Amino acid sequence: MISKRISKLVAYKTETTPAKVRLSSNELPFDLPESLKKEISRELEKVQLGRYPDPNSEELREVLGGFFKVNPTNILLGNGSDELIYYLSISVGEFNQGIYFPVPTFPMYEISAKLLGRQAVGVPLLRDFDIDLPTSIKALEENECVLAFFSYPNNPTANLFSREKIKSIREKGLFTVIDEAYYHYSGESFQEEALNREDTVVLRTLSKIGLAGIRVGIMIAKESVVGEINKARLPFNITLPSQVIAKVVLTKGRDFIEDSANRVLEERKKLYKGLSEIEGVEVFPSRANFLLFRTGVDASSVHRELVKEGVLVRDMSHLPALDNCLRVSVGKEEENSLFLEKLSLVMKKLL
Ligand code: PMP
User: Fold this and answer.
1) Ligand 1 atom index nearest CA of 84
2) What is the pLDDT of residue 15?
3) How far is Cα 141 from Cα 139, in angstroms, rounded to an integer?
């Protein structure tokens, strides 16, 4: 018998429509350099896949500690930050206590809460996409919330919430998760607070800096908090190939990561300008590796027409307050140019 909790859920859907230019999942558009791929192959040849991986990913946590400038004991790893979101939802508070997050946002916060039968308290953002503080405080008090998730910057609105508002919510006694999946494109962090407070953790991921395929998410927190959440972790959650690949890329591929992030920031500027010049398009400022834009025509039609032209973006128009909005990831220069060209064409046709 399947639980009612599960049967009333809808499985997580991501955009899988085939397209020549895929700008729908906020991945890094650049592939690893050949030299790095060769080094990965050499390292992978040495491993015996018949053996279980290191259950605690000791060496990888050491390397990540160097990368993020924290002690390895301040790091907990997940099979993507998705898994860490789930572990936090399992571990913080009791299941009859709610989980707060501003909406629209990354859907895993709500999915994890509902999987566990917890109250998912999504409070709509203001028109400028910042947190509605009075409504949030009322809602989290009414629903006895103990855990808060903030996508910082927020996916899909691309902005950073006010730090002060986040702190005001935390002051209500909520364990606060700052999901910094897009940290490399915003440069803003709560890392210092996560290292010094029992009620704050930061999430990072390798998915947005070139390694979405290997599924490595990182929680940065005080050692005592890491120790507790670690109890919810499945053994061997980071596969052997993932550990090997991440170690190689984070030791020998740092220039690649840094250069790639800088290129994305350059391209983001151009994409923003390009979008703002298209008639019937309103583009919102971005601190991430994607841009949200609104079209003066039906967004689902824009999405469909772009697919016909070989370009895949994400239709966000079904979400509250995001009527006629679409999200585009920053791609390679030629992909962005093609996207802009095709969008202009589609807008001319539909306006
Ligand atoms: N958090 C946010 C805000 C995201 O946008 C995403 C991915 N789109 C994730 C977490 C999940 O990342 P991962 O690939 O590490 O599971």
Assistant:
1) 16
2) 80
3) 5
Structural domain span for residue 345: 4-30+255-350
pLDDT of residue 10: 87
User: DSSP string of 283-298?
Assistant: E---SSSEEEEEESS-
How far does Cα 173 stand from its chain's mean position? 25
- R_g (Cα) of the chain, nearest Å: 21
Could you tell me if 232 and 279 lie in one domain? no
Same-domain pairing of 141 and 16: no
Rounded Cα distance between 212 and 275, Å, is: 27
pLDDT at 24: 96
Q: Following DSSP, what letter does each residue of 320-336 receive, concatenated?
A: TT-TTEEEEE---HHHH
- How far is residue 306's CA from residue 19's CA, in Å, rounded to a whole number? 10
Peptide bond into 107 cis (omega under 30): no
Q: Residue 120's beta-bridge partner residues?
A: 99
Residues of the chain with pLDDT under 70: none
Q: Ligand 1 within 6 A of 106 CB?
A: yes
Whether 155 is in the pocket of ligand 1, judged by its Cβ within 6 Å, is yes
